[in-house]
DNA sequence: CTTGAGCTTCCAGCAACTGGAAGCCCTATA
DNA sequence: TATAGGGCTTCCAGTTGCTGGAAGCTCAAG
């Protein structure tokens, strides 16, 4: 199957698929004309990758997860460890954003937003600490 | 003042300060020996930038905010608009992360994390849609 | 036989830095 | 005065995960 169809089926841009090949996440065969020839297993992998990426896993995590997926002798603990670490990172990111959001919201709230130059937002940004 | 001291005072790595000069956010003078010579106003700007960055504003937003800060004829509405837009983006990001987090948490929860290969996380990643 | 879509490669660029190499400059000490 | 060190300079490359575009080959339809 050519890259165009694979792109549709896996829900990934062709560019991305080529990139994934570049970095060794998939290894499609080649037809005589030089076109990439994807097997069903490649499409499966690509869909897996696409889904893992929507969960926010890094490419390296995806590589690990894919390896585990293909490894019959894996232990689910290995998968869980990767996911748990990522979950922790996501939690931290959320906490960080929330705190940022609160400060920001207060400032926006305090700003009149009129034609005068006086602005608590700028005042805060300019303050010392 | 040399970059080392400025770095400490503004709380930004020297590398970052040089980068900010590169992209035109600050324009320190130069001493005869070629060293950057920062004025108080430069340090102020850098601190402003550092703080704006901790709020998650993009470099381009920072540039705008800095321009507004220096413009006596600004209207606070302009500042508020920038901040509000950013706040909306942050809110969206948080929502996105939260939804991701929930799915992820469910999967992690469902996974035994033992020595057996069976794993709902991988199962979910591999599923069709 | 030509047209157009689809495929190929390669190079560049995004954001916002960060690391490292090679080489001045300045001060202090032996 | 020589030298060792730390700080400063520039420039180039790498990070993450793609994305856009140019130049050129291939294939199917008309």
From TrEMBL, chains A, B:
Residues 1-68 form the HTH merR-type domain. GO terms for biological process: positive regulation of DNA-templated transcription. The lineage of its organism: Bacteria, Pseudomonadati, Pseudomonadota, Alphaproteobacteria, Rhodobacterales. It holds the Pfam family MerR-DNA-bind. One of its GO terms (molecular function) is DNA-binding transcription factor activity. It comes from the Bacteria. It comes from Yoonia ponticola. It is found in: Cytoplasm. This is Cu(I)-responsive transcriptional regulator.
């Amino acid at each position: 199957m050519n890259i165009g169809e694979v792109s549709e089926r896996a829900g990934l841009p062709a560019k991305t698929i080529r990139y994934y090949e570049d970095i060794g996440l998939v290894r499609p065969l080649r037809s005589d004309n030089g076109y990439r020839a994807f097997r069903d297993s490649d499409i499966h992998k690509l869909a897996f990758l696409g889904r893992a990426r929507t969960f926010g896993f890094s490419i390296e995590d995806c590589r690990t997860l894919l390896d585990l997926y293909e490894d019959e002798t894996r232990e689910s603990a290995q998968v869980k460890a990767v996911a748990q670490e990522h979950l922790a990172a996501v939690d931290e990111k959320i906490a960080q954003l929330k705190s940022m959001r609160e400060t920001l919201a207060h400032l926006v709230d305090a700003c009149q937003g009129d034609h005068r130059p006086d602005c608590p937002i700028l005042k805060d940004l300019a303050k010392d600490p």
